[in-house]
Write a structure and sequence with these properties.
alpha/beta, 6 strands, six-stranded mixed sheet, Rossmann fold
Length: about 180
């Protein structure tokens, strides 16, 4: 079995368990990711081959999550990351302003249900926090594209965060012993 297939299967299993639990008790489930890998050119770069593959893997991981809304900032790389999942569910990608995350949170809370939000390394963790979740450590801007948050917000406003990985894994740099 390919390494990527094992990662997808593990992510799907974890996701299914958390979503099934959430669906019985909660009113809002938000899946949050950073866009996939991008090419290094221009102000609004598109996804690289690896980024397009990651977007496809994301759609596969979320295929049983019963996503009702897909949100993306208005950049080529974020829309391209969101589109395979939106297509899986026959949904339009709803564009949000990454400079106004509180407005997005208000919309998510008001709408309820299950949402995928595709953002950036500098907007996804703050959005998790605004939802009441735990963003964990900062995202490595240069190389970390595999983080998938699942934030479940209860009817009482309390949030539970599950942070998973999907697709080709990120391997953080190891400190050297040069000191």
């Amino acid at each position: 079995m390919r390494k990527t297939t094992r990662y997808v299967l593990a992510a799907v299993l974890t996701l299914v368990v958390s979503v099934l639990h959430a669906s019985q008790h909660e009113s809002l489930v938000v899946f949050l990711v950073r866009h996939g890998e991008k090419v290094d050119r221009g102000d609004d770069p598109e996804l690289s081959t690896a980024g397009r593959e990651r977007a496809s893997v994301l759609a596969s991981v979320l295929r049983s999550a019963e996503i009702e809304h897909v949100h993306s900032s208005d950049y080529v790389r974020t829309r391209a990351t969101a589109e395979p999942t939106a297509a899986e569910y026959g949904l339009a990608v709803e564009v949000y302003d990454p400079q106004d995350l509180p407005a997005l949170v208000d919309n998510l809370r008001r709408t309820g249900g299950r949402h995928l939000v595709v953002g950036h390394s500098n907007t996804t963790p703050p959005l998790v926090s605004l939802l009441g979740g735990d963003p964990g450590p900062p995202i490595d801007e240069a190389e970390e594209y595999d983080r998938l948050y699942v934030v479940t917000v209860g009817r009482d406003g309390t949030a539970v965060t599950v942070m998973m990985r999907y697709g080709t894994p990120y391997h953080p740099p190891h400190p050297t012993d040069d000191d």
